[in-house]
Amino acid sequence: MKTYGSGDAAVRALDGASVTIPAGQFTAVMGPSGSGKSTLVHALAGLDTIDSGRVFVGDADLTALSERDRTLLRRERLGFVFQAFNLIPSLTAAENIALPLTLAGRRPDPAWLAELVDMLGLQNRLGHRPSELSGGQQQRVAVGRALIARPDLVFADEPTGNLDSRHGAALLSFLRDATRTLGQTIVMVTHDPVAASYADRVVFLADGRIVDELPAPTPEAVLTRMARLDVPAQMVGA
Ligand SMILES: Nc1ncnc2c1ncn2[C@@H]1O[C@H](COP(=O)(O)OP(=O)(O)OP(=O)(O)O)[C@@H](O)[C@H]1O
């Protein structure tokens, strides 16, 4: 449970939401605007606290950890691709990708760095700063940064929001391949039925609860399920 505000202004953003994210799977989270998707993902990632309930990453109970231990767990086991990529302007693409490891006093494994850079098509951009990169390239740097430490779990909030359809499709294929070939666990919030169709499973939120789920989603099946929720599908994403 998560409530914002109090009294008449209180908003119950999560209301008995219960979800399991299987390891090695790509899970998409969908639902009408305001249904609690970002709140859920922030809670799962330990970026935000909840009022009641628990969040486990493997055996670790995030809700029982101190702020400091949560931060350490995030740094060591989780990766993030959010819409504001939060790249550091003064660092090159290569330095931004390596940042989670640099912060932990470690260096990237050269073979893994080379493989990531190759998969992301950033070979010729590693010395560039974010201001010298296109939106799509910045997004790919953010994906590299999320994966460089080989986190147990990657969270992506509308990762294709700023990309044209070609780069969006490439990024989604990359994420899907990461689950297939590396066993990467991914949770992605999206409004886009086509983006959701790259996932192994879609969970649907409405009014702060998980109301439905769909394995092996196709864009058509996702649209049909969305239409069953309160808000008409064509309004979702507004
Ligand atoms: N910091 C906050 N203070 C007050 N209310 C908030 C805050 N953050 C979110 N809310 C409210 O909580 C509810 C859930 O918000 P949340 O951002 O999780 O929804 P969402 O499904 O991610 O929406 P969208 O698709 O529009 O991004 C909404 O009613 C929202 O107005």
Automatic annotation (TrEMBL):
<keyword id="KW-0067">ATP-binding</keyword>
<dbReference type="InterPro" id="IPR027417">
    <property type="entry name" value="P-loop_NTPase"/>
</dbReference>
<dbReference type="InterPro" id="IPR015854">
    <property type="entry name" value="ABC_transpr_LolD-like"/>
</dbReference>
<dbReference type="Pfam" id="PF00005">
    <property type="entry name" value="ABC_tran"/>
</dbReference>
<keyword id="KW-0813">Transport</keyword>
<protein>
    <submittedName>
        <fullName>ABC transporter ATP-binding protein</fullName>
    </submittedName>
</protein>
<dbReference type="InterPro" id="IPR003439">
    <property type="entry name" value="ABC_transporter-like_ATP-bd"/>
</dbReference>
<dbReference type="GO" id="GO:0005524">
    <property type="term" value="F:ATP binding"/>
</dbReference>
<dbReference type="InterPro" id="IPR003593">
    <property type="entry name" value="AAA+_ATPase"/>
</dbReference>
<feature type="domain" description="ABC transporter">
    <location>
        <begin position="1"/>
        <end position="232"/>
    </location>
</feature>
<keyword id="KW-0547">Nucleotide-binding</keyword>
<dbReference type="InterPro" id="IPR017911">
    <property type="entry name" value="MacB-like_ATP-bd"/>
</dbReference>
<dbReference type="InterPro" id="IPR017871">
    <property type="entry name" value="ABC_transporter-like_CS"/>
</dbReference>
